[in-house]
Design brief:
Blueprint: H1 3-9, H2 18-25, H3 31-41, E1 53-55, E2 74-78, E3 83-89, H4 96-109, E4 124-130, E5 142-148, E6 156-166, H5 180-190, H6 199-202, H7 205-214, H8 221-335, H9 342-348, H10 351-363, H11 367-371
Parallel strand pairs: 3-4, 4-6
Antiparallel strand pairs: 1-2, 2-3, 5-6
Length: 378
């Protein structure tokens, strides 16, 4: 064999393509492959180990025009009657996890014919390998789901089980492969890129056989053309979904930004309302202070006016008293004594009259000259 022929013989198909996966794992010739894979991914030991399987549908589905998103699963039954559905899923289509549950439930229900008793129902295990992450919050590559009691998770219903293996979470290098499951996951993830059977995989006869089935040299030109067309279609779908997810993410980001902007606008409006409320309160207090200031000023003016009036009255009274005292003193000096009737008259007179009497006193000779001839009668 030439080096060119050797290189061609060691080119492998992508086992993640549904059609290739079905031929590698779901044919009558691949029972030992499926037994090894199921025992590894289900971690079966002791009496639980699968020894024999019956492939329920070993035929490949016909190629479908238009490359619709169909799928080819592998259905087998072990020596105890337990059923297994094994599926490889590359595209993360909407509602995929519901479809897995539906198929498992359908396989469980279809075990019964009309009139069959329920006790003949056997367990159904749906094993799904995905080329995308389904459960980002779970750290394990393989996740298993059963019906469990909330109060005690150890109590579970055994008849229905969903098992998922997420290939993106498997990151071991060839030198780190330690278990049969590691080797199977490494095979599924890297077979397409291999140019020879690695020593780490050669220790598993079932994986060696799987690589032989995946060898491009064993496939017809028609099958290879279909697989290449299928892979191109899958790549196109992945690109479309990627762009759709990016657009959806951008839309979500824009919505988040819009919500943030709306929230900030609401907060700004709230602050503006609070500021307006404070301004109105400040204006109210200012108006109240101005009103009180006006009242105080008015009261001050009124008090000043009263003070001035009191001062004026007091001044007038003081002036009148001073002039009356002066007049009476001068009369006493001039006329030796002040007649009894004169003092009350002088004390009750206003300033103008007192001035007039003082002026008369200067040139007058008698009291009649000052107060008039009728002063005695007054």
């Amino acid at each position: 064999m030439t080096s060119d022929n050797l290189e061609q013989a060691m080119r492998f198909l992508n086992p993640k393509t549904d059609y290739a996966f079905k031929k590698i794992f779901g044919s009558d010739a691949s029972r030992d492959i499926l037994i090894s894979f199921l025992n590894a991914i289900l971690a079966l030991v002791g009496e639980e180990v699968i020894i024999e399987v019956t492939v329920l549908d070993p035929r490949l589905a016909p190629k479908i025009e238009g490359m619709k998103d169909t799928y080819l699963d592998v259905r087998v039954q072990d020596q105890r009657g337990r059923s297994y559905i094994v599926e490889m899923q590359v595209l993360n289509v909407e509602g995929f996890e519901k479809r897995v549950l539906y198929n498992a439930c359908k396989a469980y229900v279809n075990q019964l014919g009309k009139g069959d008793p329920y006790h003949i129902l056997s367990e159904v295990v749906a094993v799904t390998i995905t080329d995308f992450t389904m459960f980002p919050d779970l750290g394990r590559v393989v996740s298993r789901f059963r019906l469990r009691a909330d109060e005690d998770p150890a109590i579970c219903h055994q008849d229905l089980e969903l098992v998922f293996a997420e290939l993106p979470k498997f990151t071991k290098a060839e030198a780190d492969l330690a278990t049969t499951l590691d080797r199977w996951l490494y095979f599924l993830k890297t077979a397409r890129d291999l140019t020879a059977i690695p020593r780490s995989l050669a220790v598993e006869p079932a994986i060696v056989k799987a690589l032989e089935l995946a060898n491009r040299a064993g496939w017809t030109e028609e099958e290879l053309d279909y697989l290449e067309t299928r892979e191109r279609w899958i790549a196109d779908q992945q690109y479309i979904r990627k762009k759709a997810n990016e657009a959806e993410q951008k839309l979500a980001d824009a919505e988040v930004k819009a919500n943030d902007a709306e929230q900030k606008a609401n907060e700004a409006e709230q602050k503006a309302n609070e500021a307006e409320q404070k301004a109105n309160e400040a204006e109210r207090k200012s108006n109240e202070a101005e009103r009180r200031c006006t009242e105080i000023q008015q009261n001050l003016i009124e008090a000043t006016q009263k003070s001035l009036e009191i001062s004026s009255t007091a001044l007038a009274a003081g002036l009148s008293k001073g002039k009356a005292d002066t007049l009476l003193r001068l009369i006493g000096r001039r006329f030796k004594d002040v007649p009894p009737e004169i003092e009350p008259r002088v004390r009750s007179a206003d300033v103008l009259l007192l001035d007039e009497w003082l002026d008369r006193l200067i040139g007058g000779e008698t009291l009649d000259d000052v107060f008039g001839s009728g002063h005695r009668r007054a």
